[in-house]
Amino acid sequence: MDIRLDNLNKTIVNCKKCPRLVKFINKVSTQKRKQNIDEIYWGKPVPGFGDLNSKLAIIGLAPAAHGGTRTGRAFTGDKSGDFLFKCLHEVGISNYPYSKNLHDNLKLKSTYITNILKCVPPEDKPLSNEISNCSNFFDKEILSLKRLKVIVTLGKVAFDNCVKLYKQKFDTKQKFIFKHGKSQLLPNGLIILSSYHPSPRNVNTKLISQKMMVDLFRRAKSLAKF
Prior knowledge:
Uracil-DNA Glycosylase, subunit E
């Protein structure tokens, strides 16, 4: 990993800017789920991971309470991640159809995965100042990916906040519409491709299917040209 990105990730992990989130992370990491009772939770902000030369970035809103907050890696150790990596493996983006922990030898092809917010918020509802505090981290992550061409946002909240950061950065009133599979140009020329979130609820209600997500990532690979 590039030393600048490595240093950024260390800064992210040590961040304590948001007292509400620090308190909630400590609560989650202490009051563990029954099936994870014997595990030591990561219990810190969760940085992104993947290839520094990535042409594709996959963006969620925040780590899951008993997923990334437990394992220390975004979309790792929860059902949303299980669904996501099954799809990424099918299109040749990940070497495994699962993501279990930091030591599972998972590798991504030309892809970087991160969240807008690095800490899990109560009820998955971040406050505006918490998003603002994390925006600098997200901005630096994206700027570190010099070959980036496509951003896939998972869920409307991730899409809205990603777009908001770009609109503020480039001082534009350009309108963006959230629709699964819709691609739009960001002010700096990157393509943003919106997707429904692969949550158990969305999968169970058939709002999104494995075929839909596989098709979307095939398209993302084609747009990113890798």
